[in-house]
Amino acid sequence: MTHPSSPDTIPPAQFAERRRKVLEALDSDAMLLPAAPPLIRGGDSELPYRPDSELFYLTGVREPGALLLLRGFANEARVVLYVHERDPKMEQWTGLRAGPEGTRSHLGIDDVRSAGQIEGELPGLLAGAEALHFRLDDRAPRIRRIVLEALRNARARGARTGIGPRGVLDPGGILDEFRLRKDPTEIEAIRAAVRLTLAGFEAARDLLRPGVGEWEVEAALTGAFRRAGADTPAFAPIVASGPNACILHYIENRRRIEEGELVLIDAGAELDLYGGDITRTFPVGDAASPEQEAILAIVDRARRSAIEAIGPGRTIAGVHRAARLTLLEGLVDIGLLEGEIEALLEADADRPWFPHQTSHWLGLDTHDPGDYVVDGESRVLEPGMVLTVEPGLYLPEPGFFGPVPDGRDPPPDPGHFAGIGVRIEDDVLVTAEGAEVLSRDPS
Ligand SMILES: [Mn+2]
């Protein structure tokens, strides 16, 4: 049986269209995007390779060792992609390579060259660019050296020749804004990843019983992801039973589920580098306690009011505010807070129990890039943006997280709600009319 997912859901023409927009934005600048380096797990063992999201976004390249150079229109627009040559010895150990020839025909990029030529050719290709869009981190030291050398040379001679580059900018300045607005192929890719994620949640939910290990639930979840055709989990799955649900990024998954507990599952399947990100909190055993029911209901109401606050022209801050107002109302209803809702909001009274934001962008990265504040104002939502909605309430037993340092207020005692942690998360597409919830409940 062939693999159920196509290895390339995004056609070469779509990548070309994205490059065209970036070339236009670059004007007289150049952009350099190196592939992510392979990471060592220990000894000679590599972690599964995860291609760089920015490089993939513009090319579809999945191989380590690649480098993309874009030179803007004003500077005689050019797209040059470097990839490793084929190498029978290396391929025997780490897998087949496409090589420049194969990459050219597969990805539809005309100018694909051997990565062995980078050192010799790149300095010449960078000359004349006004600024370089290149991330100055430690991931591609070879390329960084060439960039620094190009800057030194331009500094030494540029005053007389007028030839740059004279500065470095982060590629995210251009790419983040494009990636924030998903094109139709991306929305389809996210839909597919969300579908696979929901398949995993169905399998996980079927297994939830007292005595079952969190690790067994994780296995059911990730097993179902892979069986359904996902490439990998998009991030380490959280299977948090009982008090562990109060730990926001609990990924050990080593505890046995007990009767009468809630289990919080936060996971996403990834396909073609696009991921889903869903959280559900399920009661285990006969029935949820009245306290558990109350918290589940409050968080679910907050989720719904946040989704109702999504639409074109509305703001990401408005989504967060809607969730917080509903959570605060609920906390007042059950007697954990007292006072007027707006005043409680102003005082951040929800903060001890809801310490994170309601939303993040979702796409190639689980926390996809894109500024949440633009020119000092909250980001205005537009059709094509994809965001999560994930309100939660985490009410740990007093002392669960260790002693509070002197001079800092301990979190309020949640009384008989102590030990309950709930998060409910959906993935939402902003549409022309409002919002579409991509992650319908598994049923
Ligand atoms: Mn999330």
**Rg from Cα:** 25 Å
The portion of residues forming beta strands comes to 15-25%
What's the level 1 CATH class of the largest domain? Alpha Beta
Bound molecules: manganese (II) ion
Classify the secondary structure makeup into a structural class: alpha+beta
Main beta sheet strand tally, sense and closure:
6 strands, mixed
Task: State the distance separating the first and last CA atoms.
Answer: 28 Å
The order of strands across the largest sheet is: 6-5-4-1-7-8
Q: What name is given to the CATH topology of the largest domain?
A: Creatine Amidinohydrolase
Query: What is the global morphology?
Result: globular
Topology:
Elements: H1 12-26, E1 30-34, E2 40-42, E3 45-46, H2 53-59, E4 67-71, E5 78-83, H3 88-94, H4 99-107, E6 112-114, H5 118-126, E7 132-133, H6 141-161, E8 168-169, H7 172-180, H8 184-207, H9 214-227, E9 232-233, E10 238-241, E11 262-267, E12 269-271, E13 274-275, E14 278-283, H10 290-308, H11 316-333, H12 341-346, E15 373-374, E16 377-378, E17 386-389, E18 392-395, E19 420-423, E20 426-430, E21 435-437
Parallel strand pairs: 1-7, 5-6, 7-8
Antiparallel strand pairs: 1-4, 2-3, 4-5, 9-12, 10-11, 11-14, 12-13, 15-16, 17-20, 18-19, 20-21
Helix pairs in contact: 5-6, 8-9, 10-11
Bound molecules: manganese (II) ion (MN).
